[in-house]
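Q: what sequence does this backbone want?
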């Protein structure tokens, strides 16, 4: 996680969505993506992590609400820790006041990846497991059992948040 100005490591400043570089004293401000259905906010500061689904694209430091993530500006996929994922979903489902939604779902397109197309975890380089999320939302997520990273494709957080069921 490096500064977009000088390349030095950046430090997250609390839960404000701001990042600070101690080397060049530059501050990066998170900018919301206008077309993000999940509320993805990216800073423009590239992480060392490549996008798991886009060719030759680096993830950027960012946030979903108060939670730090790494996200892709191009496909809007999100990489986060499993415990952060659980807290984010719990908080979003509890605070969601809109109508329940069940979007279109095609298991062939939206289901788990088969063994030929499983993603490689960018942190520990092992194959991630792809499976149907056990909670609401009819989504398939990718998770690494070794380092507890979770990859979510664009719209999966909203699908889980807005799904019918106990809140």
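A:
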């Amino acid at each position: 996680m490096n500064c977009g100005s000088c390349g030095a490591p950046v430090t997250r400043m609390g839960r404000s969505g701001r990042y600070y570089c101690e080397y060049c004293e530059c501050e990066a401000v998170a900018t919301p993506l206008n077309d993000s259905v999940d509320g993805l906010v990216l800073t423009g500061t590239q992480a060392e992590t490549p996008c798991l689904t886009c060719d030759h694209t680096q993830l950027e430091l960012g946030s979903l609400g108060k939670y730090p993530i790494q996200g892709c500006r191009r496909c809007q996929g999100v990489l986060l820790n499993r415990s952060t994922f659980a807290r984010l979903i719990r908080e979003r489902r509890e605070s969601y006041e809109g109508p329940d939604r069940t979007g279109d779902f095609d298991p062939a397109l939206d289901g788990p990846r088969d063994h030929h197309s499983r993603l490689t975890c960018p942190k520990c380089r092992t194959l991630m497991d792809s499976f149907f999320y056990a909670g609401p939302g009819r989504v398939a997520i990718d998770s690494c059992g070794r380092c507890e990273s979770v990859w979510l494709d664009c719209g999966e957080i909203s699908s889980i948040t807005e799904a019918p069921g106990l809140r």
